Amino acid sequence: MERARITLFDTTLRDGEQSPGCSMNVQEKLRLAQQLDRLGVDVIEGGFPIASDGDFEAVQGISASVRRPVIAALARACFGDIDRAWQAVQRAERPRIHVFLATSDIHLKYKLRISREQCLEQAREAVRHAKALCTDIEFSPEDATRTDTAFLCQVVEAVIAAGATTVNIPDTVGYTMPEEYGQLIRTLGEKVAGIGKVVISTHCHNDLGLAVANSLAGVQAGARQVECTINGIGERAGNASMEEIVMAMRVRPDRYPYETGVASEQIYPSSQMLAEITRIPVQPNKAITGRNAFAHEAGIHQDGVLKNPLTYEIMTPQSVGVPDSRMVLGKHSGRHALLLRCEQLGHHFERRELDEMYRKFVVLADRIKKVQDSHLLELIQDVMAEGKRIPPAAAAIPFTRAAAAAVNGSFPGNALGASSIPVTFGDHHSEQEDYLWGV
Ligand SMILES: [Zn+2]
C-alpha cells in the first residue's frame, strides 16, 4: 500500500522549552537542533524570537548552522513579532514564519478583548504581512478546538487567501477527544475553500493523556503535518510525543499507513540528550524512551523473550536506538566502546573531549566496576561544562554519590563538593594528557 508522507514538525525547542524547568540556553538549543537534524525531523521550531534575545539568537544560530530542515520561528499576529521572527530565520535554507492568533470566544473576550470581526481582520493582515517577507507561512488559530466551527472555517479560509501554506489546528488546552478532533479536521477539509492547497497540521496537548491519540486521529482525517516534542515535553502536561507517533506508524502500518523521515534508531539518543540538557529525567515507564520500556522482570516474560523476543516485544530496543544492555562498560572497555555508547546516548565528541571523557571514565570504572548510562551522562555533562559547551552554572549541580566518591577516591584531598571536581581535574590535566593521547 502507498504510504502518505507525514511532515514531522518538532517544537521541543519552543513549546517544549515552555515546560517548567526546561528552559535551554543558546548553546544547548544548538546542540539539540543538530541532534533533531540527525533524527530526521522535517521542521524545527527554534523559538519565539520576540520573547527574548536568547530565543532570537538561538533561532538565528540554528538557521545558520542546521541547513536541511525547515526552520520555523513563532510570532503573534502583529507586525513587530513577525518582523523579529523574520530577522531570526531569514538566513535559513528553508525559513518559515509561524503566526498565531486565538480564535475561541473565551480567548477573544477575556484575553485579547477583541470581536470576531477584529480577529478575522488581524489574522488576515498578519498573514499578508508575513507573506511579503517569506513564502512559507504557517498560521495557528490558538484554542481552535474550543472555537465555534463556522468561525474557525472563516478564519482558516481568510488566512489561506492571504497566503498561508500550512494551517495548524491546536488543541491548546488538551480538551478534545480523538473522534471529535478527527471530525473537526474532516469538516475543515470539506468546508474551507482553498484547503486543498495547504497542509493541515495537528498540535495536541496532553492534559487528558490523549495528545498522541488525537494527533493520529487528525492524520487519519487528512492532516499531513504533526507537531510534537521529544519525550512529550511542553506546556503543562506536555505535547504529543514524537517517539510515540513515529513508532505507532511504524509498528502498525496496517492501521496507520503513513511514514515519516525519522531515523528511528536516533530516537533514544535524542531522548537522552534532552534529558541531560534539561536535567529532567524520562519517567521510567514512558513509552518507547523510558528505562523500563524494554525491561522484562517477570520470570515467564524473561523466559519468553529469551526464546523469541516477539513473545513480549512489539518492536526491538535496537529499532529505537536503545543500547544493547548486554554490552557492559567497565575499566577494560576501550575508547571505541566508550565512544560508541556515548553516541548512542546522543553525544558526538571532538578528539580532545573524548580524551577527557575517557580519562574520567577510567577513574570511575576503577571504583564502581560497571559503568551505567546514568554515570556516563554525568561524566558527559562534566566534560561539556569544562569545555564551556554548557554554562558553568550547570556544572555546579550535584553529582550522584557514586561518581563523586569515585572521583574523590582517585584524587585524595578533594572535598566532596561537586563544584570542585572540574578544578581538581584541571590541576591534574597536563600530567594525564600525554598518556591518553592516542590510547
Ligand atoms: Zn502548544
Question: What can you tell me about this protein's structure?
Answer:
Helices cover 46% and strands 11% of the residues. The longest helix has 18 residues, at 116-133. With 439 residues, it is an alpha/beta fold. It starts with a strand and ends with a helix. Mean pLDDT is 86; it is low at 390-439. The protein has an eight-stranded parallel barrel, surrounded by seven helices. A two-stranded parallel sheet has the order 1-10. The chain has two domains: 4-278, TIM Barrel (Alpha-Beta Barrel); 335-436. Strand 7, helix 7 and strand 8 form a beta-alpha-beta unit. The protein is built from 17 helices and ten strands. Helix 5 runs parallel beside helix 6 (149-161). The structure holds zinc ion. Residues 15, 170, 172, 203, 205, 234-235, 239 line the site of zinc ion (ZN).
Brief rundown of the structure:
The protein is α/β, with parallel strands linked by helices. The chain has 17 helices and 10 strands.
Basic shape? globular
Report mean pLDDT, rounded to a whole number.
86
CATH superfamily (homologous) name of the largest domain: Aldolase class I
Question: What assembly state would you assign to the polypeptide chains in this entry?
Answer: single chain
What's the SSE pattern? EEHEHEHEHHEHEHEHEHEHHHHHHHH
Helix content: 40-55%
- The share of residues in extended strands comes to 5-15%
- Summing up helix and strand content along with how strands pair, one would put the structural category as alpha/beta
